[in-house]
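Troubleshooting log. The previous structure file for this entry was overwritten by mistake, so regenerating from the original sequence record. Sequence copied from the archived sheet and checked twice against the printout by T.R.
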Amino acid sequence: MSQVISSVEGLRSRIASLEHLRLQQEAELRHCAKAAIDSIRPSQLLKNAVSHTLHTPGIGTTVLKGAAGLAAGVLARRMLVKTSAGVARKAAGTLLQVGLAKAVAGNASKIVNAGTRLFQKWFKKQS
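Regenerated output below.
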């Protein structure tokens, strides 16, 4: 790539082409730096983590099972423990909440199947 420059005009031409190349490379470097900085912003990191998690196989059913378990546990605790309950009743409510949440999350498919059968039986009687 080395060229022999034998005139002032050739030197000026080569300097101009090298300046143009420098400007192009500088613009590309700025673009890459901006992209790198944008990719490590906390909001972008969170977005990428959530996107990666949501595209994991089986995550939807796992989240639904967990949510159903938590909802059942919280509902059971609210029914057992009122606002001005004693310490023992609150402890029992917490144990019931945790136990029921684990039971529902672990048996979600069985609960859904049983609910579907009951729903179908109920609608058969209605028809």
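The radius of gyration is 33 Å. Archived copy saved in two places this time.
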